[in-house]
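Subject: complex prediction, re-run

Hi both,

The earlier run crashed halfway through, so I resubmitted it with identical inputs.
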Amino acid sequence: MQVKLIRRKIGLIVRLNGELDHHTATVFREVVDKELAKDIVQNLVLNFDNLTFMDSSGIGAILGRYRQVKAKGGKMVFCGVSKHIKKILQMGGLLTIIPILSDETKALASLH
Amino acid sequence: MNYMKMEIPARSENESFVRVVVAAFVARIDPTLEELNEVKTAVSEAVTNCILHGYDNSEEGIIWITASLEGNKFSLEIEDRGKGIADIERAREPLYTEKPELERAGMGFSIMENFMDELYVESALGMGTRIRMLRSFGKKSWDNH
Ligand SMILES: Nc1ncnc2c1ncn2[C@@H]1O[C@H](COP(=O)(O)OP(=O)(O)OP(=O)(O)O)[C@@H](O)[C@H]1O
Ligand SMILES: [Mg+2]
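This time it finished cleanly. Structure:
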């Protein structure tokens, strides 16, 4: 899996490319946590456009980042969510706390 | 009946490999993309549990996978000879996890139950765990004629 970061003033965009499972969740955690530790951005946009698979390991990893963002007073939003990924996020209870926007532009706008 | 068996070392890099192999086995009965994704996710949950819990993330131990198809009926068994589960009922409860410090959600069994028709768990402490899952796909082939 590849994790691409795009730094914007309003927040950090994280583009996930590939499959998010127990094996690859480590990469996701490390890359995002390193950036959050810099304390420059508060808000996080997770873009799932190119995410082809996710299981419960993804739920745990996303929740972990959500808690950090929340503790710093920031917001987290999703975009590019496919039908299958949406089902997994829903089962994990994530959709009651994190909103889904259709694309990156709308996701960024929702942070204002 | 058609079947396939495989064994792999309990290493996390093998999770995606097993998903792909089982998906390819099921593909011959022409499941929808959605059905295929659901099977892949169930496989991933069971295999991850063997690695993470059965063998405590030691990356040692072996996982056995058996898949079979009888018409549109799919059966999948995933087994480890790891530490076993003390309380199966509690383990199957949504949100229960023994490893919250590793950011586990406790959703693996719930996802397997959701995506498959039936889920059976056999386990003995110090002996290992075997998960058996059943699922029927779409319509029976003769329904289409
Ligand atoms: N193969 C196994 N060997 C030993 N214990 C297991 C095994 N599979 C599951 N368990 C036990 O059952 C519990 C629940 O499993 P489940 O997959 O639902 O959640 P999890 O693995 O803890 O979290 P998640 O799957 O959301 O990452 C585990 O925390 C573990 O205690
Ligand atoms: Mg699990």
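Residues A 56-57, 60; B 45, 49-50, 53-54, 80, 82-85, 91, 96-99, 104-109, 129 surround adenosine-5'-triphosphate (ligand 1) (CB under 6 Å).

- K.
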